[in-house]
C-alpha cells in the first residue's frame, strides 16, 4: 500500500538513495534537502529515472522551514538529516559541540514534536530515526558525534514508552561505517583547530580509526534496509545494519563494565573476529 513519507537529509547519501527508491516503489515521497542546489539536482535525477518526487528545502534547525514542512500530512517521518563534528572530546571547540547537538538532537526532536500531533489525532503513524551504531558505542575521534546519537537513542526509548497506545510506531535505524562520504567529513571539520603537534590523542588511536574508515561498506545495503523499515509494519525498535555488528556492539557495551585503570576500552570492529 502506498504511503506518504517525508524524509530529511535527502540531498545525499542514505536519504537520497532511500527517497528515490521509496518513490520508485510507488510511495508519495517528500524529499527534504538542506540546500536549494540539492533540490535542483534531485529533481533532475528523479526525472531521468521517471520517478515522481516532491522535493522541498528544509534545514531542520530553521523554525520557519519546519512549520512549512508540518503542513504536509504524512504516514511516515524518516529523520535522516544529521551532521558530524570530528576530533578528540578533550580538545574540540564547544561551538562545534553545540552545532552537532543543534542539528542532530534539537533539530531531530523538533521534527518529531511537529509531526506527533497529526499522527496521534489519526491514531496511526511511524517515526523512523536514523541514529548510528555509535549511538550504542563510541568510536574515538568522533565521540561528540557519538554522544548526539546516544542522546537520540535515549529519546527514542522514552518516546516509545510515552507514545504507547497512540498508534505511533517508533523505531531507529543504526548504520555502521558506510561509504557515503559522511564519515570522511569528520576529519574535514577538524582542519581549522586540530593540532597534531599538541594533541593528547595517541597516534595509535588515530591510525586505528583511519584503518576503520579505509574499510567502509557499500551504502546500498543500508539504503535497502532503510526502505524496508519505512515500508513494513511492526518494525523492530532497533535495526542495526549490517546486522553482524550487533554482537560486537553488545560485547563492547559489556566490556565497559569490566575495564579498569589504563586498560583499553576501544576495540576496532575489524579486529573483533
The largest sheet, given as strand count, sense and whether it forms a barrel, is:
7 strands, parallel
Helix % is 40-55%
From the spread of the alpha carbons, the general shape counts as globular
Tell me the strand percentage band.
Answer: 5-15%
Distance between the termini: 41 Å
Count of beta strands: 7
Helix and strand content put the structural class at alpha/beta
Number of domains: 1
Mean pLDDT: 96
Helix count, DSSP H or I runs of 4 or more residues: 9
The side-by-side strand order for the widest beta sheet comes to 3-2-1-4-5-6-7
Walkthrough of the structure:
This protein is an alpha/beta fold and 273 residues long. The chain has a single domain, classed as NAD(P)-binding Rossmann-like Domain (Rossmann fold). Helices cover 44% and strands 13% of the residues. The protein contains nine helices and seven strands; from the N terminus they run βαβαβαβαβαβαααβα. The chain has helices at residues 13-24, 36-49, 63-69, 94-122, 143-162, 185-188, 203-213, 220-231, 245-255; strands at 4-7, 28-33, 54-57, 76-79, 125-130, 168-175, 238-241. Strands 3-2-1-4-5-6-7 form a seven-stranded parallel beta sheet, with helices on both faces. Helix 1 (13-24) crosses helix 8 (220-231) and helix 4 runs parallel beside helix 5 (143-162). The longest helix has 29 residues, at 94-122. The termini are far apart.
